[in-house]
Design brief:
By secondary structure, the protein is mainly α. It has 14 helices and no strands. The protein is elongated, with a radius of gyration of 31 Å.
Length: about 325
């Protein structure tokens, strides 16, 4: 689990490299799984057994991708407490866009599993020799001269068991199934790549910022996330040490400032870039607003302390210009 989470973190940092690494590791896992664990039963369970090995691991990888994604929990944490805000159209659209981004990353591993499994062909062979559709079995066995016997004993072919059908005829059927499986695998790979290209083109075309600024935004977001993890761990350690020292020494605790619940909520929401305000995250937005509020308080205090008969104190000169 930790290794898979590390791979997903790499995928978040370097999209192309991370996706490739996830795909390679998934392909390697499928090869080991197919050679060590998978054993076609060669009976009436062929179809169910083959489909389970083809689809269930992909479903598990998909769910693991959602579970290990930080964006998933950033989106859903406290969502039931903010249902009124979520009912707004803009909030729903933003949540849907984020969910699509999470799904794009989470689909890399399961799609890689299915594609490699189809190229390998073992699961597909086992599953399709267990179909009870007479029309399909008749078409499948049409490549041999022993069609009647083939239709009755086709479920035995993946195990290479003794059969009234000669080995050459059985191999022809299995080669036909493997060809179908590999065709489906390459079609799946090409469709995934085409979909990825189209989604990337659409997202870049509708991007409100330039390529270099988008690149800077990604670098900043990753750096802020790393610094947040490090600073949170440091602050939590200091707070824990203070509380333990206060408890064991029976002394008053040293004052440590910790953000309030509202402050945490403000920086925990997902952020969408706005060209009107050049903030790169909710934390950046929060820091700038705190800075502006502090400056406004300072100006207010200075103006209240200034003498009424001396306008120069407020920065005005005789010609009406503002002195910077």
């Amino acid at each position: 689990m930790d290794k898979f989470k590390t791979v997903l973190n790499i995928a978040n940092k370097q999209t192309n490299l991370g996706f490739g690494l996830v795909a390679v590791l998934t392909a390697g896992g499928e090869q080991i799984f197919s050679s060590v664990v998978f054993k076609c039963p060669c009976n009436g369970l062929n179809f169910l057994y083959g489909m389970v090995f083809l689809l269930v691991p992909a479903l598990a990888l998909l769910l693991m991708g959602y579970i290990l994604s930080k964006k998933t929990w950033k989106l859903f944490t406290g969502l039931c407490q903010r249902r009124a805000k979520l009912c707004r159209w803009r909030k729903l659209a933003a949540a849907g866009m984020v969910l699509c981004q999470i799904s794009t990353t989470a689909l890399v591993a399961p799609s890689s599993w299915i594609a490699v499994a189809l190229l390998n062909g073992n699961y597909y062979e086992c599953a399709m020799t267990g179909t009870n559709v007479s029309a399909y079995n008749k078409r499948l066995c049409s490549v041999t001269d022993y069609q009647a016997q083939c239709e009755k004993e086709v479920y035995r072919f993946p195990c290479r068991r003794d059969s009234s059908v000669p080995m050459s005829a059985r191999e022809d059927v299995l080669l036909s199934l493997r060809a179908q499986s590999q065709i489906l695998g390459w079609l799946l790979i090409s469709s995934i790549m085409l979909s990825n290209l189209l989604l990337t083109c659409v997202s870049r075309c509708t991007s409100p910022i330039s390529y270099l600024q988008l690149k800077f935004w990604r670098v900043y977001a990753q750096e802020e996330s790393d610094q947040m993890d490090a600073y949170t761990a440091k602050h939590a350690k200091e707070l824990a040490q203070r509380n333990l020292t206060s408890f064991f020494n029976q002394t008053a605790p040293v004052s440590i400032i910790t953000p309030s619940n509202k402050d945490w909520e403000k920086i925990s929401s997902l952020y969408k870039f706005n060209t009107k305000a050049h903030y790169y995250s909710t934390l950046h937005q929060y820091a700038e607003k705190v800075s502006n509020s502090a400056m406004m308080r300072m100006v207010s205090v200075r103006s209240s302390d200034a003498p009424e008969d001396n306008p120069a104190v407020l920065g005005f000169v005789d010609d009406g210009r503002i002195e910077l």
